[in-house]
Design a protein that fits this description.
Helix content is 45%, strand content 15%. By secondary structure, the protein is of the alpha/beta class. The protein has two domains: 3-122 and 197-309, Malonyl-Coenzyme A Acyl Carrier Protein, domain 2; 127-187, 2-Layer Sandwich (Alpha-Beta Plaits), CATH 3.30.70.
């Protein structure tokens, strides 16, 4: 069975998210990350309280590290994936897993990315809201209620589009969405208007940071959040990663691209099952497997064995 590997982004963090991996050999990834950043990280993914995980830097590092530990354990089970992808922050995880960025460089970059996006959010305060039941066209029209203050930030799946912008802009966008018949708007508990022009300061800074990051060509493509195209070139990711924080995440289209690459199964690696839920809406013909704990490795192996026998 042809498999594509996907990694979650911020919002999937939870206390104790990596605790099941604590005694697994894959935990060595955490030790490498601690050495790369020069700070302790184990407590962040084992026993950090919710209020600590609500901070942008801590949340993103927790999600990244948990996914990387799970992938270290899973990559032998997930044999020869046809592609990688990751939602928002998960795109950095995908590039590390694909071999485009060395682990240590990737962890340092993710930490800096979180710091710069939070700094941009502090300078340009913003909000995000999920429009449940909305089409991309409805979301785009809703944003026209405040065209310079509200934008589509995530097109996640049919019926799940996220808008973001200034507090006033999002308020206007939500009000217009309700006029258009969108049944519900849910505020997201995040620290800024990510994936909008309010993050352009961070994009500019990241472009400078990426000059010193080693980026390699890959044998397996990584599908970009920006244009939903699959890439194997390393150098092109400098521009993509810099722009990434200020342009929309086109996750619905990313999933369709993975299906077009002949993936028959999506393997969500990391804590939670957010991407599995989105896949059921977007690519229901693809089977989905979650690897969030060591016990999931056997289930994934059994799934592969059955598919090979069939």
């Amino acid at each position: 069975m042809a498999r594509a590997v996907v990694f979650p982004g911020q919002g999937t963090q939870a206390p104790g998210m990596a605790a099941p991996w604590r005694d697994h050999p894959a935990w060595a990834v955490v030790e490498r990350a601690e050495k790369a950043l020069g700070e302790p990280l184990a407590d962040l993914i084992v026993d950090a309280p919710p209020e600590r995980l609500a901070r942008t830097r801590e949340a993103q590092l927790a999600v990244l590290l948990t996914s990387l530990v799970a992938w270290e354990a899973a990559h032998d089970v997930v044999d020869a994936p046809v592609a990688f992808a990751g939602h928002s922050l998960g795109q950095v995880t995908a590039l590390i897993a694909a071999g485009a960025i060395p682990l240590e460089d990737g962890v340092r970059f993710a930490a800096r990315r979180a710091e710069l996006t939070q700094a941009a959010a502090d300078r340009h305060p913003g909000r995000m809201a999920a429009l449940l039941g909305a089409t991309p066209e409805q979301a785009a029209e809703a944003c026209q209620a405040a065209p310079d203050e509200c934008w589509v930030a995530n097109d996640n799946a049919p019926g799940q589009v996220v808008i973001a912008g200034t507090p006033a802009g999002v308020e206007a966008g939500v009000a217009r969405a309700k006029q258009l018949g969108v049944r519900r708007a849910t505020p997201l508990n995040v620290g800024g208007a990510f994936h909008t022009p309010l993050m352009r300061d961070a994009s500019d800074e990241l472009a400078r940071e990426l000059r010193d990051v080693e980026l390699r060509d890959t044998t397996v493509p990584v599908v970009s959040n920006d244009d939903a195209c699959a890439y194997t070139d390393g150098a092109g990711w400098r521009a993509r990663l810099a722009a990434h924080v200020s342009v929309p995440v086109r996750w619905r289209e990313v999933q369709l691209t993975l299906a077009s690459l002949h993936a028959e199964q999506l393997v969500e690696v990391g804590h939670g099952s957010m991407l599995a839920a989105l896949a059921k809406r977007t690519v229901p013909d693809l089977a989905v497997v979650n690897i969030a704990a060591p016990t999931d490795l056997d289930a994934s192996h059994d799934s592969r064995t059955r598919s090979e026998e069939d």
